[in-house]
Known about the structure:
This protein has four helices and three strands. By secondary structure, it is mainly alpha-helical. The chain has a single domain (14-141), classed as Rossmann fold.
Amino acid sequence: MEYRIFKIFIAKSNEEMGKIAANDAESVMEEFTRRQNKKCLAVFAAAPSQDTFLFNLSKNKKINWKNIYAFHLDEYIDLHKGHPNTFQEYLKTHIFGKVPIPEKNVFFMKDLPQDKVLERYTELFIEKYREVKDSGGIYIAL
């Protein structure tokens, strides 16, 4: 088992914190997706607290977004697909519409049959997780 030592940063502002977090994520994602040419399964949070992080992450040109499978953590069940307050629309606006990630590599709950969304989303996640793990890639929660 590999252990990592976590660094603790105290940022002076939300903007500084977003930059630090994006730099950390970028270094890991770049290492695997570009230098090692491996897949990465990335799970994204969607909330205003992520704005500066996603803004800075979207500016990175060294990440090979073609090697990333993207999922999101949660979604509103009472908002219809396309509603501007869904997490799907938030992530499209703040990250996926700004980076060259293939549309087929982004998985949204609202794109699935809503009567089986949890079951199907879980199946897709496990399928991609196994593919990434078997290829020597990584899973990262952002």
